[in-house]
Amino acid sequence: MDPALQKNAKAAKFSILACEKWDHSGCVNYRCSDYYLYAFKDRASEGQPPGMLTSMLNKYLQCLMEGLTAKVFRTYNASITLQQQLKALTDSQDSIPAKILSYNRANRAVAVLCNHQRAPPKTFEQSMANLQAKTETKREQLSLAKKELKQAKQDVKGSDSEKLKNAPMMLSK
Q: Which of 74, 110, 114, 167 has the highest count of CB atoms within 10 angstroms of its CB?
């Protein structure tokens, strides 16, 4: 490996030199966050939409390596980070449940480190509307059931007083 690349890799915030088998085409030491933050700082302050910054970053990454985009870089970074976490958290002697637990912990750590956030599904709004309708229906059913219970208690109370009034007559027969 080129000594200059190695030196830059040590200084880089996001170094992806984890696998020596990979062909390092000069962009693996690239600090996406620095480029994103500093190269477009002026445009961001002018209120330009973030999507424009991403497209410009992708164009720059394409110049460095064909097919490289911010998404590819993030995916590669997450994969390498997961490998490192698995290596740190697992032992070949572990049982299967322990390995599964280690995997889940590593996956959670990668999600935190790489700031992964699950996007809401496309049908989220419709699902929420359906849930709201079901909730409202259940509330109405609960209200009706409470009214029926109250009426039933009053009916029982009324019939008990009738029985008490008639109790002396029943005893005399």
A: 110
